[in-house]
Design brief:
This protein has 25 helices and 32 strands. It is α/β, with parallel strands linked by helices and 763 residues long. Strand 4 and strand 5 form a beta hairpin. Helix 5 packs parallel to helix 6 and helix 13 packs parallel to helix 19. The longest helix has 29 residues. It starts with a helix and ends in a 9-residue tail after the last strand.
C-alpha cells in the first residue's frame, strides 16, 4: 500500500480503541469488519455467504463504500453511516429557525454533512409584525449556522460540511451571491443558486425578473444582470454554483411523492427535507484488463457482478445504520435511496489509451455508465423480489418518471413485475479521500488533476501537512515504460483540458445517473472571463442538473498544488536571516520613524468600556500593508490578553507576506459564553470582532481587494454602534459569567456577581 494510502487508512478508516490502540491490524481487518457489519442485515443463515461476497468486492479496492461506512460500520459507535443530509424546511419563525439549528448541530455531531434551503426565510428589511421590527434576512442566520459548524468541527478532525442554497427569485439573492466577497465569511458553506427553467428562459431573452417572497414582489431587475452577477462571482472566488432545480424535480424517480429544494454539500444528491445521502463507488481503474495493451478493456462481466454486490451492500446500510434524527430514519427507510457511483474513470481511460473528453472517451464512458445503470436497476429489482419494494413505491407513477421511461425495456419489465428496492440508485460523488485510499486513483469522474502533485492534508490535531503523490495510472505507466518515457497524447491532466471537455464527460454520465453528479470544472487562473462566462449556460444546454467551477485565486487558494519543475537561476523569494543563533525565513520589515494609521472604536456589548484599536501601516512595493497593532481599553479585565494579542499580531505583520490569515484565525474564535449581534450579524467573540476590525482596515487600505461599497472616509469609525441602553438600568441584559457561562452576571454591591452559581469577581 502506498504511504499516502496507508496514512489515509490509519487516520480515517482504521478502528482504534479509546486509548488509541489499533484494533484493525491490517486493511484486510477493516474490510472484514465492514463486510460483517453490512451482512448483518441478511437472514442469519445467509450472513456468512454475503459477508464473504462483500469482502471480495472490497478487496483490491474494487468497491469503495463512502468513508462513513468504512470508518463506522461494525464499530458499535454512535455514528451514522450516511454521508450527508438535507435538513428540514426552515420555518420563518425565530423558534423554528433555532430548532433547525439544533437539528443541524446534532446531525453534524454524528458526522453527517448538511444541506439547507434558506429561501424560506423572509428577506432583509421585511417587517416582523409580532415584535415591530425589521427582519435581518437569511444571510444573518447563515452566519449563525457557520459559527455552529466551526464549533462542531472543533470536536474532531473532519472539516464541517454544509450546503446553502437560495432560489433565484428570492429578494436577497444578490446578497447571497456576493456573500463570499467578504474574506472569511461563510467558510463552512458551499453556496449554490437554485436556477429555475423560467429564470433561464428569462436570461436568454434578457427579460425582467421579479424578486418575490410569499407573493409580494420586492423589486424587479434584468434576469441577464442577475445571471452575470453569478458568473462574475464564481469567476472571482469559485462560488456560487448553480443547481437547475426544475430539471432535478422533473427527472426525479419520486416525482409523485416529493419536491426537492436542496442538495447535500457536494451536490451529487438532491434530497427532500430530511433526505439522507448514502454513497459508494465502483473503482473503474481496478477493473481494467491488459492496461496499455491493444486489448485494454474493462471486464463487463466482472463489472456486472461487482455492481450487483455493491447495490446489495448499500441497501443493507439503510438497515444497519444509526440516524441522528428520527425524521431522517423514517425518510431513508421509506424510500431506501442509495447513491452508487464510480471513481477512477480518468485513470481507466488512460489505462485504455483514450484521451479524456475525446469522442472515443465519450463512447467508452457511455458504454460503462449504461452498463452500471442497467446492472444496478436489475439488482434492485431482484432485491425487491426477495425483500420487497421500498414502502412508497407506486408502480404506475414510478414507471412514468422521465428517467425510468428512458431505460431499456427489460429493465422496465423487471420493475413492473417485481417493483424496485431502492427509489434512486446512482450518483457520482467527489471520492477525494477514498480515491487516495485506493492508491490515488482519479477522483469520481474528474480528470487526473496532475501526474504528480502536493496535497494539503488536515491532521487530527488541526495542523496541515503536505504529501506528494503520483496518480495511479501514471504510476502504472512508469512501471511499464519507465519514468523517462514520453507521455503519449492520451495522457492529459485537468490543466490541459478545456471547459468543453469537462462538460462533455459530465453530460454523457448524467444520461445514466438518476440522481446528480459532483463535478468541478477546474480552469487555470489565467483563463479569460470571455472564455469562462458561458460555462454555466453550456451546462444547462447540455442537460446537466448542476455545475460548479474552480479557478485558483488569492481569495480561495487551493487544496492541491501541482508540482512544478524548479526554475533555473530563479531568485529566492525569502532570504534567510539569522539573529541570536536563530535562523528566520525572512528578515522582519523595518519600522519607519513615523507611520500612517487609523484608530477604530469598538464597543463590545459585554464590556463596560470601549476598545480603541490602532493599526499602523507601511508602504512596500507600492502597496500599503499593516505593520503593527495596539489595543487600549479602560477595562483592565482584558489587559493581559490584549497586550499578548498586540505583540503576537504585530510580530506576524512585521514578517511580511500574506498576513490575511490573521483575520480568519481571529474570526474563528468562539466564546463558550456566547457572542453578540452586531450590525445585524452574529459575532461569536470579542476576538472575532477585533478580527473584523483588522479585516475592514485591510479592505479600506487596499491590502485586501474587496468589490462592493466604497470604504467610509472617516479616520475614526465606530465599527459597532453604541449599544442601545434601556431607560431603566435594572432591565439591562446580564453579562456572561466566567465560571458557569450563564448570562447571570449582574452588578451588585459594587461588584459583579453571578446569580446562577454565586461567582463573584470580588472573591
Amino acid at each position: 500500500m502506498l504511504p499516502i494510502a496507508e496514512q489515509i487508512w490509519d487516520m480515517k478508516y482504521r478502528l482504534h480503541g479509546r486509548d488509541g490502540t489499533p484494533l484493525d491490524l491490517t486493511v484486510e481487518d477493516t474490510f472484514t469488519r465492514v463486510a460483517n457489519a453490512l451482512a448483518a442485515a441478511e437472514k442469519p443463515d445467509d450472513q456468512s455467504h454475503w459477508a464473504a461476497r462483500f469482502k471480495a468486492a472490497l478487496t483490491g479496492h474494487r468497491f469503495l463504500p463512502a468513508g462513513r461506512i468504512l470508518a463506522g460500520a461494525g464499530t458499535g459507535r454512535d455514528v451514522t453511516l450516511f454521508n450527508c443530509f438535507v435538513m428540514g424546511t426552515i420555518p420563518d419563525t425565530m423558534a423554528g429557525i433555532f430548532d433547525n439549528l439544533k437539528e443541524a448541530a446534532l446531525t453534524m455531531q454524528q458526522g453527517g454533512g448538511i444541506g439547507y434551503d434558506f429561501s424560506t426565510l423572509r428577506p432583509k428589511g421585511a417587517r416582523v409584525e409580532g415584535v415591530g421590527a425589521d427582519a435581518s434576512g437569511p444571510l444573518s442566520f447563515m452566519d449563525v449556522w457557520d459559527a455552529m459548524c466551526r464549533t462542531i468541527m472543533s470536536a474532531g478532525s473532519r472539516r464541517g460540511a454544509m450546503m446553502a442554497v437560495m432560489r433565484c427569485d428570492h429578494p436577497d439573492i444578490e446578497e447571497f451571491i456576493d456573500a463570499k466577497r467578504a474574506p472569511g465569511r461563510l467558510t463552512m458553506f458551499n453556496l449554490s443558486v437554485l436556477a429555475t427553467d423560467p429564470f433561464m428562459a428569462a436570461v436568454k431573452a434578457d427579460a425582467d425578473w421579479p424578486l418575490v417572497f410569499k407573493g409580494k414582489t420586492y423589486r424587479t431587475l434584468k434576469a441577464r444582470a442577475l445571471w452575470d452577477r453569478i458568473i462574475s462571482a464564481t469567476y472571482a472566488y469559485a462560488e456560487p454554483g448553480v443547481i437547475f432545480i426544475d430539471r432535478i424535480n422533473a427527472r426525479n424517480n419520486l416525482h409523485y411523492c416529493e419536491t426537492i429544494q436542496a442538495t447535500n454539500p457536494c451536490g451529487e444528491q438532491p434530497l427532500p427535507p430530511y433526505g439522507a445521502c448514502l454513497l459508494g463507488s465502483v473503482n473503474l481503474a481496478a477493473l481494467v484488463r491488459s492496461p496499455f495493451g491493444d486489448d485494454a478493456r474493462i471486464d463487463m462481466d466482472e463489472l456486472d457482478a461487482l455492481v450487483r454486490d455493491a447495490v446489495r451492500a448499500m441497501d443493507n446500510v439503510v438497515d444497519v445504520s444509526r440516524f441522528p434524527l428520527a425524521e431522517q430514519e423514517r425518510e431513508a427507510k421509506a424510500k431506501r435511496r442509495i447513491g452508487l457511483g464510480v471513481t477512477g474513470l480518468a485513470d481507466a481511460l488512460i489505462l485504455c489509451r483514450t484521451r479524456y473528453g475525446s469522442k472515443a472517451s465519450l463512447a467508452l464512458i457511455d458504454t460503462w455508465m449504461k452498463a452500471i445503470s442497467r446492472s444496478a436497476y436489475l439488482a434492485s429489482a431482484d432485491l425487491a423480489r426477495e425483500k420487497g419494494a421500498f414502502p412508497l413505491f407506486d408502480r404506475d407513477a414510478y414507471l412514468k418518471g422521465e428517467t425510468i421511461a428512458a431505460m431499456d425495456d427489460d429493465v422496465r419489465a423487471a420493475i413492473a413485475t417485481h417493483g424496485i428496492r431502492n427509489a434512486l440508485i446512482t450518483s457520482i460523488a467527489p471520492t477525494g479521500t477514498i480515491s487516495l485510499f485506493a492508491g490515488n486513483v482519479s477522483s469520481g469522474i474528474e480528470p487526473v488533476f496532475a501526474f504528480s502533485y502536493t496535497r494539503k492534508v488536515l491532521m487530527p490535531d488541526g495542523t496541515r501537512r503536505e504529501e506528494r503523490v503520483t496518480d495511479y495510472a501514471i504510476a502504472k505507466f512508469y512501471e511499464k515504460f519507465g519514468e523517462g518515457a514520453a507521455m503519449p497524447d492520451y495522457v492529459v491532466s485537468a490543466q490541459e483540458l478545456a471547459p468543453a471537455d469537462h462538460l462533455a464527460v459530465q453530460a454523457v454520465c448524467q444520461k445514466h445517473i438518476d440522481s446528480s453528479i459532483s463535478k468541478t470544472i477546474n480552469v487555470p487562473e489565467d483563463i479569460s472571463f470571455d472564455a469562462f462566462k458561458d460555462i454555466y449556460t453550456d451546462a444547462y444546454d447540455k442537460g446537466l442538473k448542476g455545475c460548479t467551477t474552480y479557478r485558483p485565486s488569492d481569495v480561495r487558494g487551493s487544496v492541491l498544488t501541482v508540482d512544478a519543475a524548479p526554475a533555473v537561476e530563479a531568485p529566492a523569494k525569502a532570504i534567510p536571516f539569522e539573529k541570536d543563533g536563530v535562523v528566520y525565513m525572512s528578515k522582519p520589515l523595518e519600522r519607519e520613524t513615523v507611520l500612517p494609521g487609523y484608530t477604530y472604536k469598538l464597543n463590545w456589548p459585554e464590556s463596560d468600556h470601549a476598545m480603541y484599536i490602532t493599526i499602523n501601516d507601511i508602504m512596500q512595493d507600492g502597496r500599503r500593508r499593516p505593520f503593527e497593532i495596539f489595543i487600549n481599553s479602560k477595562n483592565m479585565e482584558h489587559y493581559a490578553w490584549t497586550v499578548a494579542l498586540t505583540r503576537m499580531v504585530s510580530a506576524v505583520f512585521r514578517r511580511g507576506g500574506d498576513v490575511t490569515f490573521v483575520v480568519e484565525e481571529l474570526k474563528a474564535v468562539f466564546d463558550p459564553r456566547g457572542g453578540s449581534w452586531m450590525k445585524g450579524r452574529y459575532v461569536p467573540s470579542l476576538l472575532a470582532a477585533i478580527g473584523e476590525v483588522i479585516e475592514q482596515h485591510m479592505i479600506d487600505t487596499g491590502f485586501i481587494i474587496c468589490e462592493g461599497d466604497a470604504p467610509e472616509p472617516d479616520a475614526i469609525r465606530a465599527v459597532v454602534g453604541e449599544p442601545t441602553l434601556p431607560s431603566d438600568a435594572a432591565t439591562i441584559k446580564a453579562k456572561g459569567c466566567a465560571r458557569c457561562g450563564e448570562r447571570s452576571l449582574i452588578r451588585q454591591e459594587g461588584c459583579e456577581t453571578c446569580t446562577s452559581c454565586g461567582y463573584s469577581k470580588c472573591g
